[in-house]
């Protein structure tokens, strides 16, 4: 009986020869499977021992071959494995030793290059040395991975893994030993990576985890500014004959906008919207512009903010009270009785800022009743604010006609205040969450004034052929999103013919870009397109839009996540175990008195807007998950649903944050600031 050992695509098999033709054989393997083998692939023919016995014996002998010695003994030029066996073992090297030589030569390509079926050639000495070094490094790395994995599984974090924690979790190099050690440790301990790292001490502060992750992803070079000086405005600007006032939160330092009202009682009122004018001093591609373009926006979070521009630059242009501040002003003249628009004008000027009003101090004082004359109005700028409120309601009503339905302010805003001595670790402060009704009079005044300015200036740029950065929405149909572009187009959600962002140039880069274009319009009118910094089809505008979209989305996502963190901390600090909520869909509910959306077991089949009480069964500050179960339904199951409840705000993110943390780690691998303003009102 004849047997044959053959090469099957780099794998050596042996079996009984059943038949043989000129160029092929049919061989039956030990498993009973029959295969057709080219004669050229047959390396040994033999009658005994049995194939399995030969392979097992040869593999054992192959392990005894010293590769360094074999390389020394091997002849120069090409040689066959049988020839090599006789040189290495003895001239009488039999079948088993020949097969052993074949196996050993084949598995050591760093020593011997394959030159054909059963043929080999010595690798050059320098190649052998380099290969051996690489093998040694790989072995050392494997040992290091094993050591780190053991330390992690035992509850301690090696320094290299701690240093690269966020890269490992969110932007890993899957060939890096630090990453492989975490994967290996998670597999060994049968724990999720986050749990493993938390127990090993790599993550000891959920707040720092969220903060450092954000910095790693968005500010890898740090949050510091280079040394910059605010450029001076070269123009001699005229002084406006107004007394302007701003309306902001007490923590606001980037005061972008102020208002003025003149002509009360005359039959024609001039309403002024005055916007801080860094664009009169900062030039495109200047050092300050490069910093602003890199950051693109101010980042807000409870208790802190990262400004788009250094504070010394901001303070040079912010509309602080008691100063005559450079501004880009929009003046709109209204018929006092009908509020019909008579004319609009844009001016570059210095505006006296008489006061910085703070709505968190005045919301309880400046009420709808006091603004409409139903209650005393004992505060500064009472007549002007009363007109502003009347105008804001008129403008809002006009927009709602275009929208086709009213705007619903059925969910409140929330303010976060962190109370601490400053000595406690970040994230452990006492958090105070207060509710602020959307559409409060001062909010309405500011938002409608900004919408008026952004819409009017968007129309101005379009009229004179100057490109700008616009926001548009084709319709209010479900799924139709707000888009950014360089041409004016209707914004269905806002109810305006066009809409640009131009009223926050100290904290949003697109507003600064638009301000440069508006300044050109104010100075040059119909010829502005010839001198504006950005020309039609300018690729820079498109790159700004792309970069801003990504950064603004990331910043808003972080703000939502960190506010969710502080909301969960509030629950924890106040030992809250039950919440009232309204049902959304698919088991999601929205807390009635907190900015919190979460899943509650037992609500999956309930209709939208049903009111429920849920019991909190657990929360995780790291993953930002809240677990809850239905306790009881609070409303009448037979009652009609509340119309419009839980309707998302126009041009807002409709997908509420519900916790959950997505990692880039793959265990299957074998190897101090106010809340951000409304999306478009600023």
From TrEMBL:
Residues 637-682 are annotated as: Disordered. InterPro entries: NA-bd_OB-fold, RNase_II/R, RNR_Ribonuclease. Residues 644-654 have a biased composition (Acidic residues). SUPFAM superfamilies: Nucleic acid-binding proteins. Coiled coil: none annotated. It comes from the Bacteria. Residues 670-682 have a biased composition (Low complexity). Residues 236-524 form the RNB domain. This is RNB domain-containing ribonuclease.
């Amino acid at each position: 009986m004849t047997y044959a050992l053959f090469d099957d695509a780099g794998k050596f098999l042996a079996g009984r020869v059943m038949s043989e033709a000129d160029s092929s054989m049919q061989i039956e393997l030990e498993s009973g499977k029959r295969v057709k083998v080219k004669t050229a692939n047959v390396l040994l023919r033999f009658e005994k021992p049995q194939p399995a016995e030969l392979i097992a014996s040869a593999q054992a002998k192959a392990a005894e071959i010293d590769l360094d010695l074999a390389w020394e003994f091997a002849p120069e030029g090409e040689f066959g494995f049988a020839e090599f066996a006789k040189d290495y073992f003895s001239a009488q090297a039999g079948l088993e030793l020949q097969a052993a030589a074949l196996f050993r030569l084949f598995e050591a390509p760093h020593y011997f290059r394959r030159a054909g079926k059963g043929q080999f050639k010595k690798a050059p000495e320098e190649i052998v040395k380099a290969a051996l070094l690489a093998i040694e490094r790989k072995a050392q790395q494997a040992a290091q991975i094993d050591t780190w994995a053991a330390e992690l599984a035992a509850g301690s974090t090696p320094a290299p893994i701690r240093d690269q924690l966020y890269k490992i979790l969110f932007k890993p190099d899957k060939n890096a030993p630090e990453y492989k050690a975490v994967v290996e440790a998670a597999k060994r301990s049968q724990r999720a990576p986050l749990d493993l790292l938390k127990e090993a001490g790599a993550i000891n502060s959920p707040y720092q985890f969220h903060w450092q992750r954000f910095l790693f992803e968005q500010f890898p070079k740090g949050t510091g500014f280079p040394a910059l000086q605010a450029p001076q405005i070269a123009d001699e600007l005229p002084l406006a004959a107004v007394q302007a006032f701003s309306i902001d939160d007490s923590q606001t330092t980037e005061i972008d906008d102020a208002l003025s009202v003149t002509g009360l009682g005359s039959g024609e009122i001039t309403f002024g919207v005055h916007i801080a004018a860094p664009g009169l001093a900062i030039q495109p591609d200047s050092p300050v512009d490069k910093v602003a373009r890199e950051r693109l926006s101010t980042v807000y979070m409870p208790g802190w903010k990262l400004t788009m521009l250094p504070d010394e630059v901001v303070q040079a242009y912010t509309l602080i009270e008691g100063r005559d501040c450079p501004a880009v002003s929009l003046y709109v003249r209204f018929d006092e009785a009908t509020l019909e628009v008579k004319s609009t004008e844009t001016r570059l000027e210095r505006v006296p800022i008489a006061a910085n009003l703070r709505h968190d101090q005045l919301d309880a004082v400046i009420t709808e009743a006091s603004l409409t004359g139903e209650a005393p109005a004992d505060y500064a700028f009472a007549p002007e604010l009363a007109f502003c409120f009347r105008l804001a309601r008129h403008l809002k009503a006009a927009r709602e006609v275009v929208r086709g339905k009213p705007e619903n302010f059925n969910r409140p805003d929330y303010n976060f205040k962190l109370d601490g001595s400053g000595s406690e670790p970040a994230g452990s402060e006492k958090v105070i969450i207060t509710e602020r009704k959307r559409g409060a009079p001062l909010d309405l005044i500011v938002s409608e004034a900004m919408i008026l300015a952004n819409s009017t200036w968007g129309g101005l740029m379009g009229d004179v052929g100057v490109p700008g950065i616009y926001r548009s929405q084709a319709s209010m149909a479900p799924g139709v999103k707000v888009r950014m572009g360089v041409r004016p187009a209707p914004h269905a959600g806002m109810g305006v013919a066009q809409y640009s962002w131009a009223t926050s140039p100290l904290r949003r880069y697109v507003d600064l870009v638009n301000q440069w274009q508006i300044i050109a319009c104010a100075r040059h009118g119909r010829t502005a397109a010839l001198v504006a910094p950005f020309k039609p089809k300018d690729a820079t505008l498109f790159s700004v839009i792309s970069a801003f979209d990504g950064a603004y989305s990331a910043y808003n996502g972080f703000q939502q996540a960190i506010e969710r963190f502080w909301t969960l901390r509030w629950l924890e600090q106040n030992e809250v175990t039950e919440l009232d909520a309204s049902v959304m869909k698919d088991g999601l509910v929205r807390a009635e008195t907190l900015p919190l959306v979460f899943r509650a077991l037992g609500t999956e089949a309930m209709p939208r807007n049903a009111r429920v009480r849920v019991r909190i069964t657990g929360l995780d500050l790291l993953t930002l998950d809240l677990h809850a179960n239905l306790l009881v339904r609070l409303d009448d199951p037979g009652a009609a649903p509340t119309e419009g409840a839980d309707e998302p705000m126009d041009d807002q993110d409709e997908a509420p944050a519900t916790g959950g943390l997505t990692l880039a780690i793959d265990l299957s691998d074998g190897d101090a600031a106010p809340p951000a303003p409304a999306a478009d009102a600023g």
